[in-house]
Design a protein that fits this description.
The chain has 126 residues and is of the alpha+beta class. Helix content is 29%, strand content 40%. A six-stranded mixed sheet has the order 2-1-6-5-4-3, with helices on one face. A hairpin with a 6-residue loop joins strand 4 and strand 5. Helix 1 packs antiparallel against helix 2. The longest helix is centred in the N-terminal third of the chain and has 19 residues.
């Protein structure tokens, strides 16, 4: 198995950047499209546990659009073979001083492109 094939890694990095722009811009249709539409897709958030795409959609559609801007640091994207990757990053927000956010995503290549199948967001004290 090839780890971090340059072409595959570039694809996942592009998908990750698209996700980040959609997140901070509250582009709900793009956010929804980047998650695998399946009842087994899971997103653990800072204040919610979402099982399945229906729950993820409901959360995204109800979430306030204010205060989503953030700064990323220590982002690590690793690809395993041609169809599997993880993306880990830390983030900070002006509206959460002294807190460090952590985000992890599991990405899988499907026929329609790279999709998140599992995600976790949490906050800890800085």
């Amino acid at each position: 198995m090839v780890i971090d094939d340059a072409q595959v890694k570039a694809e996942v990095e592009a998908a990750f950047r698209t996700y980040e722009a959609a997140l901070t811009g509250n582009d709900v249709p793009v956010l929804e499209a980047l998650f695998h539409d399946d009842p087994r897709t899971i997103r653990y958030g800072a204040g919610e546990n979402l099982y399945g795409m229906d729950a993820i959609r409901a959360f995204r559609r109800a979430r306030a659009a204010a205060g989503l801007e953030r700064t990323l640091s220590q982002t690590v994207i690793t690809t395993y073979g041609r169809d599997f990757a993880t993306a880990m990053t830390l983030f900070s927000r002006k509206n959460a001083p002294g807190r460090i956010g952590r985000q992890s995503q599991t990405w899988v290549r499907f026929p329609d492109g790279w999709r998140v199948v599992a995600a976790h967001v949490s906050l800890i004290d800085g």
